[in-house]
Recover the amino acids of this structure.
């Protein structure tokens, strides 16, 4: 066995040091790329649209259709998102956009963006959204489209507001109602972190609003993330690091993170009403809710109904969306159960192959 010479050791040490430097440089470049995704915004909500109506902070947009007017569906579709998030998730990025998908299928598409409430909007509540804003929006949609009928798609709290409108104004032309992850029934206090937290007597929404006025978006966002802390605070970033060399995966992550970080407050009175009247007392399902002096009866809903439920939804568990099917008077109603979570069923990787086509095919046959 021959001895190793000093010169051979020197070569080995030099190569080893070069390898270490190369690996360090590679890791540094990956860290820079990782940081860029965390601290910059992706381009989202890029589908061309026109501003056609405003009221206070709210804006109504009509998307520019690639389909000739005489080939479009005659019944327009109005999309209503939640009041504490931007609606951009419906048009996340080119090639992965529900808006883009529905436009290609020939829908005359409208989007209601509630905007971010200022301190002067603290008194706003669901009464205003359902009976002040939505009726005006509907009139504008019908006037611009030339149709006496319309379809409405509500997501999350947008689904709650859409449900209130559908029950209170059943004769105003609403033909089809699509509810996505609709938080309506809070009778089961063991399901869903928000329901458990808010049912605790120590949870006082009035004190929160007295302290903050409008409820900070950061507070609501933190609460949602704490429902799955490991996944939200660790798993998401681990997934990004592991996929830094996958352009498609990082592009999708960057777009979603851009939307998630763009958080807005919730009007103070709307928050109190949500916690006290809905979460704590379940007035809508108990047929005891009154909006601006008008009782809200789910049995007054007669529009065709598609109820989309996310089976793994930890924000709006399935039990909060199911019972409405037994309470409406709609002769045409269907439940669509989709594998996935609160956002993933519409913005996840499989949405364009599962959720979107089902919604579109259901709506197409009812939009003639």
């Amino acid at each position: 066995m021959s001895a190793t010479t000093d010169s051979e050791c020197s070569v080995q040490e030099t190569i080893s040091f070069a390898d270490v430097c190369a690996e360090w440089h590679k890791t540094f470049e990956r860290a820079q790329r990782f940081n860029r995704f965390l601290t910059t915004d992706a381009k989202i909500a890029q589908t061309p649209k026109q501003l056609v109506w405003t009221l206070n902070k709210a804006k109504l947009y009509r998307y520019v259709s690639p389909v000739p007017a005489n080939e479009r569906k005659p019944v327009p579709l109005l999309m209503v998102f939640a009041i504490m998030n931007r609606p951009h998730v419906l048009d996340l990025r080119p090639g992965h956009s529900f808006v883009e998908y529905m436009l290609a299928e020939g829908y005359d598409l409208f989007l209601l963006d509630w905007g971010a409430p200022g301190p002067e909007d603290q008194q706003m509540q669901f009464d205003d959204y359902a009976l002040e804003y939505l009726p005006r929006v509907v009139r504008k949609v019908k006037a611009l489209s030339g149709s006496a009928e319309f379809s409405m798609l509500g997501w999350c709290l947008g689904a709650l507001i859409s449900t209130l409108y559908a029950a209170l104004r059943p004769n105003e032309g609403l033909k089809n109602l699509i509810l996505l992850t609709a938080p309506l029934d809070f009778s089961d206090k063991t399901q869903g972190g928000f329901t458990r937290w808010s049912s605790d007597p120590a949870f006082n929404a009035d004190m929160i609003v007295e302290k903050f006025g409008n409820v900070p978006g950061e507070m609501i966002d933190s609460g949602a993330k704490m429902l799955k802390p490991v996944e939200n605070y660790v798993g998401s970033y681990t997934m990004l690091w592991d996929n830094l060399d996958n352009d498609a995966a990082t592009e999708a992550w960057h777009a979603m993170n851009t939307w998630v970080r763009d958080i807005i407050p919730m009007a103070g009175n709307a928050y109190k009403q949500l916690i006290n009247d809905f979460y704590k007392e379940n007035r809508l399902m108990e047929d005891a809710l009154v909006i601006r002096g008008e009782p809200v009866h789910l049995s007054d809903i007669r529009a065709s109904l598609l109820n989309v439920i996310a089976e793994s939804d930890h924000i709006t568990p399935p039990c909060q969306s199911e019972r409405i099917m037994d309470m409406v008077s709609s002769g045409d109603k269907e439940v669509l159960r989709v594998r996935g979570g609160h956002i993933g069923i519409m913005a996840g990787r499989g949405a364009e192959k599962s959720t979107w086509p089902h919604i579109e095919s259901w709506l197409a046959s009812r939009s003639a």
